[in-house]
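DATA SHEET
Item: assembly model
Revision: 1
Owner: S.N.
Input lines:
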Amino acid sequence: AQKVTQAQTEISVVEKEDVTLDCVYETRDTTYYLFWYKQPPSGELVFLIRRNSFDEQNEISGRYSWNFQKSTSSFNFTITASQVVDSAVYFCALTWTSNTGKLIFGQGTTLQVKP
Amino acid sequence: EAGVVQSPRYKIIEKKQPVAFWCNPISGHNTLYWYRQNLGQGPELLIRYENEEAVDDSQLPKDRFSAERLKGVDSTLKIQPAELGDSAVYLCASSPPVKGEQFFGPGTRLTVL
């Protein structure tokens, strides 16, 4: 099966705390792509990152960082020093080369950052 | 650069009525996607277009749903007749010729009463 699991349904933190959103994926393909999207209350999905299966290098972008580990089929997302504006639903997604570009999304994790 | 445009943003209809959603992708993006997002779920693909050709419509309920992308630019998704279970957000996305990330529009929130 090809699927994405985000086990955390909701997370609540206080501003300035660090928070990690988990993503576990399953795929039979050796060439695949993983994504994170942010969906604020306005509803529009905002692209955050794409990572291909051959690049396990972790990435940092400002307060955001991503930890890709093929050994555990995980692609976790950490927000450092969270802010109220980070409050949103975050989706992890998967596609693979023979999948015609269709994204398979996880259930999403709702992050609430309280002041 | 303008993003993906969708209209209307909200639509409330009674069951058995028809409804249509419109999407204008980012200029130069030849691939267009329609997704449906149920409450509390991630989006699920309904149909994917490469230019004007539907290359993946395996998830589209063809008895009541139809879509078109004339001239390979704008697209319309139609439901006729709508059912209560069709209440959801309908998202349109587009991506450039060299495969990359998909850019999403704000979606149309459909409520069927």
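QC remark: Chain A has a mean pLDDT of 92.
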